[in-house]
Amino acid sequence: MTNGSSQQKKVLAPMVRIGTLPMRLLALEYGADLVYSEEIIDRNFLDCYIHDNEKYSIKEWISNKTQLSFFSTCVKERDRLVVQLGTSNANYAWKAAEKIVPFCRGIDVNMGCPLDYSTKGGMGSALLKTPEIASDIIKTLRRNLPSEYSVTAKIRLFPVLQDSIDFVHMLANSGADAVAIHARQVHERAKDKANWNQLAQIATHLSNIPLLGNGDIFSSQDMQQMKEQTGISQWMIARMAQWNVSIFQGTLDSIHNVIVRYVKLAQDTNTYYGLAKYCLQQMIKYQKWTKTEFASKINHSQCWKDLEDSLVFVPPHP
Ligand SMILES: Cc1cc2nc3c(=O)[nH]c(=O)nc-3n(C[C@H](O)[C@H](O)[C@H](O)COP(=O)(O)O)c2cc1C
């Protein structure tokens, strides 16, 4: 069984606060084929300017209102970066896409976020209930973007299988180049097992559009297992990449190396230290290091120098 494109791809999933430039670059260094940005709400792009930060060789999108950077990228990821938009309006989505397309390879629309802040504005999983708006957004992006840029969507499962199939079918007919399916329903959380059986059935019905399989991939074995069970060989990985992004190279690298490389990339890309601190805290939790001196140093850090100094306390390899 194969779905659409049988070419294997490992993809960094969109993750708020995690999927910023240094994590994306590290994912690529460890072998990811594609990296999704965290979700960015379309309106941010409508009221911003692009700062060419020559010191760091990056471009930064700065809000006119706050003068803070809400997105950054660099040439190294240009051909492998998909920017995910939070949107409920085709016109805004296109205006936002216009501000970013020269610097990425595609635009994705978040149609799966279950959180109130997203759904209240008609974004995220609210789009699963408004297929005409979802279709309008995809059609508008596809119509306006040059064909070398991909237009994709990331969805969740519907309670009824046929509804998932119909929705993906609608996206394909609207011009989507691929659809990522997070194999959980909107009300389900990370502790609920991802439903690969449904993925398999959707893939069987939809051979005309590439599908990315997402949910509960924690190892290379899981990727092979998903391929065998569903025919899908484009794997989108979120939490395991958050915990140890070397998942993309197959065998995990030591978390010590991952941490050192992440911190270096974060510093080299003008990343706010608080954001790097947050990412390190997620890695620490997964290692069950919360009671170590390293964790304490990270938790108390207040600047880049503190974070850097704490690296000597990373526990040794087990
Ligand atoms: C910290 C975090 C942030 C996330 N942010 C986004 C997001 O911005 N957009 C999105 O579509 N999904 C987001 N997700 C969902 C993931 O992309 C993914 O669908 C989900 O975690 C299931 O994949 P996994 O089992 O590999 O973790 C987020 C997940 C996590 C853990």
From TrEMBL:
Xref: InterPro entries: Aldolase_TIM, DUS-like_FMN-bd, tRNA-DUS-like, tRNA_hU_synthase_CS
Residue ranges occupied by any DUS-like FMN-binding domain in the UniProt entry: 12-253
Chain segments annotated as coiled-coil in the UniProt record: none
Flavoprotein keyword on record: yes
Keyword Flavoprotein listed: yes
GO cellular-component term (any): cytoplasm
PROSITE patterns: UPF0034
Pfam families: Dus
Keywords: Flavoprotein, FMN, Oxidoreductase, tRNA processing
Requisite cofactors: FMN
A GO term, aspect molecular function: flavin adenine dinucleotide binding
Protein's UniProt name: DUS-like FMN-binding domain-containing protein
Species name: Galdieria partita
